[in-house]
Structure formats: C-alpha cells, structure tokens
C-alpha cells in the first residue's frame, strides 16, 4: 500500500479589482484644485521662494495623480501596476515612443507658431544652470523622467482603463471614448493655470494632440511603454534646447 501523494497547496485567490472612475476623478479633481490653490497663493504673495514655487508646481500635480494610482492598485486592485495599468515595456515601444514624441512635438510647435509667431514660447525658460542637485532634479529629472512616469500611469493607465470599463459600448467604441476623455483631462490639467487665452489654446491643443496619440498607442498595445517613451521625447525636446540656449 503506497502513501498518498500530498495535494499541492491551493493558489491564493486573485484579488478583486474595485478601482474605477471614482479613483480617477479624485486624482484629476485633486490635481486641478491644488494647481489653482498654488496659483492663488503665488499671485497673492504667499509663495516667494523660487525653488519652493518650482517644487510645488510639480507636487501639486504629482501627489494627487500618483496617490490615486497607488490607492487604486494596492488598496483596491491587484497590487500589480503591470496587471492593473499596463506598466510594461517591449522593445517595439521604443519605436512607437520616438515616432509619437517627435511627431506630436512638431504639431505642438506649429501651434506655437500660429499662436505666438515663433516656436518655443510655451517651452521652458531656465536661468543659467547651477549644475547642483536642485538643478539636476528640477530642470532635468522632474520634467523629462518623473513627470512622464507619473502622468502616464494616471492618464493612460488608471483614467483610460477606468473610462473604457465604464463605457457601455463595444470595446472599440469604449476605447475611442476613453482615449478622447483621457486626452481632454490631460490637456485640462496642463491649462488650468494658463496665463492668457493664447496660452490656453496653444498649450491645450498641443497637450490634447499628444494625449490622444499616447492614449491610442496604449489602447493598441495594452502597455504604457510606448506612451512613456513618447512623453520623455515630447518633454525633452522642450527642456534640452532650453538648457542649451
């Protein structure tokens, strides 16, 4: 009589994903309100330190966006950014990203020429570089690397997928609606503190076109890799020339 083979341990049940439009709405509305609050504080003289202003200009957007992504993933989702929001990279994403980033930056530059009569008016304006840790973080890492990671996780990860899942339509239609909504919200967050009507439509049009292209490649591939590379290129083509100017 042979001993019975012990049964393999049962795999833990998959976590039930409960994130959706409410998580995305909290992040987007929170970012808009904090941007407006920071703009009000700056205009009323409560913020005077240039470095503090520059740091807050990033944090008021990043904190609510990244916070909503992390809450959705680790408290209400699968605890995997790859499964929940497509944070994956394939070598082909490099080609997607370079192409989209270059083309959308050209389109955004055409909007600048139409609105201002020249390129670069809406780009970065930087003082003489100090080449210290602050300069490296605020002038290079923040706009070129950190912003693409956080913003793509939210806009093309959480928001796009939440809208697609909530749209009562066939998948191609749901994805098209989700791409348009994510691009609109992306543009809105970038123009909520626009200083003039011209800046409003120039920046709004450029960011909407980029957002639509990034959302489309994400919808096609199911990954954020291409959108993140495109975002790095799109921002880098503004920041790097400003640094070399």
Structural account:
The structure is a single chain. The protein has 8 helices and no strands. It is mostly helical and 245 residues long. Helix 5 packs antiparallel against helix 6 and helix 5 runs antiparallel to helix 8 (225-244). The protein has helices spanning 21-43, 50-74, 81-85, 91-116, 133-166, 171-191, 197-221, 225-244. The termini are far apart. The model is unreliable at 8-12 and 122-126 (pLDDT under 50).
Annotate the secondary structure layout.
Elements: H1 21-43, H2 50-74, H3 81-85, H4 91-116, H5 133-166, H6 171-191, H7 197-221, H8 225-244
Helix pairs in contact: 1-2, 1-5, 2-5, 4-7, 4-8, 5-6, 5-7, 5-8, 6-7, 7-8
Structural key phrases:
mainly alpha; single chain; about 240 residues; 8 helices; globular
Query: Spans with pLDDT under 50 lasting ≥5 residues?
Result: 8-12, 122-126
- Secondary-structure element pattern, one letter each: HHHHHHHH
Strand percent estimate: under 5%
Span between termini: 84 Å
Summed up:
This protein has eight helices and no strands.
């Amino acid at each position: 009589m042979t001993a019975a083979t012990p049964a393999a341990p049962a795999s833990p049940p998959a976590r039930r994903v409960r994130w959706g439009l409410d998580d995305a709405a909290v992040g987007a509305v929170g970012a808009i309100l904090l941007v407006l609050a920071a703009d009000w504080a700056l205009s009323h003289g409560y913020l005077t330190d240039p470095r503090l202003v520059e740091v807050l200009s990033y944090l008021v957007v990043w904190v609510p966006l990244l916070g909503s992504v992390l809450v959705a993933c680790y408290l209400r989702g699968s605890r995997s950014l790859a499964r929940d929001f497509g944070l994956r990279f394939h070598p082909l994403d490099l080609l997607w990203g370079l192409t989209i980033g270059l083309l959308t930056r050209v389109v955004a530059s055409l909007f600048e020429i139409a609105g201002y009569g020249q390129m670069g008016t809406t780009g970065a304006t930087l003082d003489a570089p100090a080449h210290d840790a602050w300069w490296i973080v605020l002038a290079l890492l923040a706009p070129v690397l950190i912003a693409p990671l956080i913003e793509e996780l939210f806009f093309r990860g959480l928001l796009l997928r939440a809208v697609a899942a909530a749209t009562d339509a066939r998948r191609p239609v749901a994805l098209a609606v989700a791409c348009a909504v994510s691009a609109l919200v992306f543009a809105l967050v970038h123009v909520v503190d626009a200083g003039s009507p011209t800046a409003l439509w120039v920046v709004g049009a450029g960011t909407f076109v980029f957002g639509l292209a990034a959302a489309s490649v994400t919808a096609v591939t199911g990954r954020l890799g291409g959108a993140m590379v495109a975002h790095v290129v799109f921002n880098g083509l503004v920041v790097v020339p400003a640094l070399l100017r």
